[in-house]
Amino acid sequence: DGMNVLFIVVDDLRPVLGCYGDELVKSPNIDQLASRSVVFSNAYAQQALCAPSRVSFLTGRRPDTTRLYDFYSYWRVHAGNYSTMPQYFKENGYVTLSVGKVFHPGVSSNYNDDYPYSWSIPPFHPSAEKYENDKTCRGKGGKLYANLVCPVNVTEMPSGTLPDIQSTEEAIRLLNVMKSSKQKFFLAVGYHKPHIPLRYPQEFLKLYPLENITLAPDPWVPEKLPSVAYNPWTDLRQRDDVAALNVSFPYGPLPDDFQRQIRQSYYAAVSYLDTQVGLLLNALDDVGLANNTIVVFTADHGWSLGEHGEWAKYSNFDVATRVPLMFYVPGMTTSSVSQGQRIFPYLSPFNHVLGLVPQGRSRKVVELVSLFPTLAELAGLQVPPMCPETSFHVALCCEGPSIVRYFNTSEEEVEEEEDECDDIHNCCIEEPGAFSQYPRPADTPQWNSDKPKLKDIRVMGYSMRTIYYRYTVWVRFNPNNFSADFADIHAGELYMVETDPNQDYNIYNNTSQG
Asked: Per its Swiss-Prot or TrEMBL entry, what cofactor is needed (predicted)?
């Protein structure tokens, strides 16, 4: 009878992973998961902000349907009483469990992570989370600061631990409980790192000597970037170490050496995360459930590491919207393993890095909004219907298709050669691309450009990513009736993937409009 689900969602993780071709990072455990999974190279979030992205993929609805573009409303009250993915599993006989940051905490999940609708028992939050933004980073002369770059001695931390360590421990405890209960489960584990502050055990720094760390390939603000598209990374500026640099707003670049330190600490935080994922998957093996548990690994969105002179998320660029996405399905992405053989032995990033390749890799452009129907199909549940054009009144439907049909990646290689599509209409249906959006309060960067409140939104950037291009239009938006006026275009962006993979040369104005 049906398989269990282990759903791992990471905060602010762009695909800097060995299995995605990154040559610097040490991520052996996630790479090992990838080597037993189907990996999607072109997966995108629907908005590069935590709460809107999470509510979107957990309900299977786009931000224009959840009407959440900030942190300050609960969709069941504000938009429609939409069922969530965990709720659907719960209603189909699963024990649903939440550990760490799955829903964004606060009003956007009704201050209780949508319990009891979504979860069988109240969600677990690590107690050490409350120290996350405190002054716990040792600076010059041993003084403590609330820094962005924050390697720490874990034994000196309040209660001698970090939030993600606590989440792993709790998830492992729950796996042991579920093993003996013999009930099907849906266990969601939300990790905090590499979300800022970049606070992680200091030993991970030695994996990344500073001399090996480069700047972003394009650390300047592109000449033809519309000002409305730029995000001024206000949250970074509020950290003690960044504030001390006194960088001019909004474009002032960070000093090169500090850019390298941020990049170094982001990588170190990813390796720390990798160890937590490794311990969790190793425990899945220990309790003997790796043979009948689907494992999904993804992130809520990416994070810019200096590309375009930008940091953090808050934009429509690939660096902010692209996420890792992989599915391990026993018997489907791997042949079944004989009893007692380990599938996920723990690998230390300090020892060997294996250079494992994904079991299967799909280059299809997919969206996180497809997670809900995909997991339903993989678990053998009825796939919720596609939503009608307006679906505020529909409790259960999905705005993205299941992507299980892309899991057989061997067929894709053949298609690559016949890429030129004769019938443009079939092309559009088959490859619709991925849609993301981002709101702005004005046409030029403001202090609230990164995270405008609903009432302050004046422009919405709607972005479409296909295999060939990223196309974005910034249009007038009215927050009172949630309407976008596509006849009133404030700015546009067009980047060709093949000739401009980093999205530095906006050719929107070179192409005929209309």
From this structure: Ca(2+)
CB-based contact 95:181 (threshold 8 Å): yes
DSSP per-residue letters across 36-101? TSEEEEEEE-SSSSHHHHHHHHHHT--HHHHT-SSSS--HHHHT-----HHHHHHHTT-EEEEEES
Q: Domain map of the chain by residue range?
A: 4-409
**Tokens 């109240």 identify what position?**
122
**Prediction pTM value:** 0.95
For domain 4-409, give the CATH superfamily: Alkaline Phosphatase, subunit A (3.40.720.10)
| Average confidence (pLDDT) over 327-351 | 86
pLDDT at 2: 81
The pLDDT of 446-464, averaged and rounded, is 98
How many residues does this entry show for the chain? 514
Give phi and psi for 405, each to the nearest 5: -65, -15
Residue with tokens 């479409």: 464
The closest of 188, 208, 162, 210 to 96, measured between CA atoms, is: 188
- What pLDDT is recorded for position 352? 65
Give the span between the Cα atoms of 25 and 28, in whole angstroms: 9
Give residue-wise pLDDT tens across range 354-388. 667 777 899 999 999 999 999 999 999 999 999 99
